[in-house]
Amino acid sequence: MNTHSPARRCGLTAFLALSATVTVVATASPAASGAAVARGPGATPPASSISWGSCPQESDPPGRPPSPKARCATVKVPLDWSKPKGRKIGLFVARYPASNPAQRIGVLMSNPGGPGAPGADDALYADEPYDGYDPAIRERFDMVGFDPRGIGRSEGARCDDSILDEIPARPRDAAEFARLRTLNGRLAQSCLRRTGPLVAHMDGESVARDMDAIRAALGERRISFIGHSYGTFLGERYARLFPERLRALALDSAMDPDRPSAERTLMDGSVSLNNTLERLAAWCAKNASCALQGKDLAAVTDKLFTRADAGTLRDPGRTGPTREKVSADQLSAFLSAALSGWSPEETARQLAALHTGKGEVNWPDSAGDPVARLVLCRDEDYRIRDYAHYRAIRDRVAKAAPHVRYNAQALDFVLACQGWTVPPKPRPTRAKGDLPPVLVVNATDDMATPLAGARRMARSFPRASLHTVDTVGHWLYTLPEPRRRIDAYLLGRTG
């Protein structure tokens, strides 16, 4: 559930064809480099040696190319981990080698989130000033990132995107809810036709097993891992399957690991959003720069919803309200997008524009991503019985989050999985073995990965500490204090 999307990570699909320049894996002895080898069905295959080659050079959109220190390769893994000798697929892997080999700790593998986002850029751009890694980390670790199966420069999944335009975004009655389910099912079937059996194997457990195959190919006995947003889900899955192969596990902006229901997912996200609206109201009451200074911002927002319900709320214009009606669903979507970025002065200005009818509002883009559904709807169980059940959930959530009604991102995820024809995959059994102490970091107000879920993530491990940051935000590694804490944890543990 990654909302962190630096400019250099946009437009990667334009470069998928360049993955053909990557050198493929050559198999080696199972005992290569002392790598641990698991046994049994679906176990990690024997270790391989990777022949590293040059990396694709990004040129469109404009931006500097990946670090010249980065090297790239393809690792072959089973499409279906229950059939390890069956068909193989390729994973695009990038490595940024430790700059101080004499003091090298090992491999730090990472995933930036999603669901359905590429991850090799973490290594390709490890030395970027804003969203790269500090020199102390780059000195001691080989940074390793990868594009998960079906994503980015790995063998990609394809669907009929045109179906997205037909799916009701917010079903208003039983007929529209039924249509939503039917079209979601049709979209899933289009993915199966265009992609093949990979569609049923893009779940987090399969990706965690891929991570262990990369570890074995690197010849490492253990790895450290840092996951952000949906990447924390992959970290939890890896810890569940391969506890003794982890040296350290840092989870930034953590998912709820307990497969929450549609209601709990929507409830946690909406309550977090409502809390942020109240934080904005408190800020507005104390700051003269607030466009609604002197007014109760929460009460103003409530009145905007009342007007939207009555059909009298209009999109503001330069001289007054336009003829374009604003629905309550549009208002919830605006609040979800505006509050997640936490720019209080700008959000208050746009709320004032809606209130007075004069000004401009930046309405969010609601375009969907079918590939994200291939991951999300396999990992989570958001199934809702029928429209009556859906309305009951919405009513309970609206009572708990009265100023915002619901979290639009959370509802998008929940609705995306209704009628999905590839059913959720059961959570894997926890393997025996000792885990290192785990670090979980989360904002107090995070609409994508609410604090309630991060608390459950921390409680899911035998030894874990939860560090909360009193802020509105997501993907906290870009902030100085959380970054220092995570880096100290990663560097401080002995290998």
Please supply descriptive tags for the structure shown above:
disordered N terminus, Rossmann fold, single chain, alpha/beta, 495 residues, two-stranded antiparallel ribbon, 2 domains, 9-stranded mixed beta sheet
Separation, N- and C-terminal Cα atoms: 31 Å
Q: Tell me, rounded to a whole number, the average pLDDT.
A: 89
The helix content is: 25-40%
Largest sheet: 9 strands, mixed
CATH topology of the largest domain: Rossmann fold
Shape: globular
| Strand fraction | 5-15%
User: Roughly how many Å is the radius of gyration?
Assistant: 23 Å
Level-1 CATH class name of the largest domain:
Alpha Beta
Instruction: Give the quaternary arrangement of the chains.
Output: single chain
User: What structural class do helix, strand and pairing data support?
Assistant: alpha/beta
CATH superfamily of the largest domain: Alpha/Beta hydrolase fold, catalytic domain
Strand order within the widest beta sheet: 1-4-5-7-6-8-9-10-11
Instruction: Give start-end ranges of low-pLDDT stretches.
Output: 3-42
How many H/I helices?
Answer: 14
